[in-house]
Every structure is written in C-alpha cells, then in structure tokens.
Amino acid sequence: MSCGQPHETDCSEVLEHLYEYLDREMPDGDRLKFEQHFEECGPCLEKYGLEQAVKKLVKRCCGHDDVPTDLRSKVMGRIELIRAGQAVPEQPVVDPAADPAAPPAQVRGDTAGENLP
After folding, report:
1. Where are the beta strands (DSSP E) in 7-115?
2. What residues contact 52, with CB distance under 8 A and at least 6 apart?
3. How far is Cα 5 from Cα 7, in angstroms, rounded to an integer?
4. 53/39 Cα distance (integer angstroms)
5. Most buried of 13, 14, 58, 77 (most Cβ within 10 A)?
6. pTM of the model
7. Which residues form the signal peptide (predicted)?
8. Under a CB-based contact definition with an 8 Å cutoff, are residues 3 and 38 in contact?
9. Cβ neighbourhood burial of 117 (10 Å; 0-12, 13-18, 19+)
C-alpha cells in the first residue's frame, strides 16, 4: 500500500515495522520518523489506527490470560532468530501433548488408525 506521494520514510517500510511501532519496540529516532510519516500519509495513518484498535480489542478480550514463562521464552527466541535472518527450526512452539484440544494421533505422535476404513 502506498499513497503515491514521496515521503522520507517509504510507506512499505512503515507498514513492515508497524507492530514494532505499536509495541514501542523501536528506537525513538525511528518512532519520530514514523510519526512524521503518519502526519503526511492518510492511508498509513488509517492502517495504523486500524491495527491499534485491533490490538486494544485483543488486549481487552484476551489480556487477562497469563502466558507461561517457557512459552514466552520460546516465542521470543524465535523472533530473535527471524530478526537475525537465521533459519527457524520446524518444531512446534507449544508441546502438542500439553494441548487438551489436540487429536489423539497428534498427542501420541503416531498415525494409529490412519488406514482404517
């Protein structure tokens, strides 16, 4: 998405890092560039407002659930690997055996009963 106007900070860069801005996970200098961009660019400001509203809604509806420390560590570790441009191992972040909603074959890790009529 782009408004078609030239900006010091390109729309694609702003949208690519929008959640870092929303979560206050970027340096102050970059935040100032984004704020300037939002003042100049209606489409990006609209997208920012929408994502901010979704974030608030999710927090209101789901913000009371405690995240297990080990899950948070695993997720943060994967985020760091992605940011560093490293390959992310193909393994579940959550242990399927700990998920009561997982189907039995998934929990056991086998394919028992797959060939049944």
Report:
1. none
2. 22
3. 6
4. 18
5. 14
6. 0.53
7. none
8. no
9. exposed
Looking up tokens 């560039």 gives: 33
Q: First-to-last CA distance in the chain?
A: 50
In this prediction, residue 111 carries a pLDDT of 42
Q: pLDDT tens, 94-111?
A: 555 555 554 444 433 444
Per-residue tokens: 15: 């949208």
10-33: average pLDDT:
92
- Please say whether the beta carbons of 44 and 11 come within 8 A: yes
> 6: burial class by Cβ within 10 Å (0-12, 13-18, 19+)?
exposed
Within 10 angstroms of residue 34's Cβ, the number of other Cβ atoms is 21
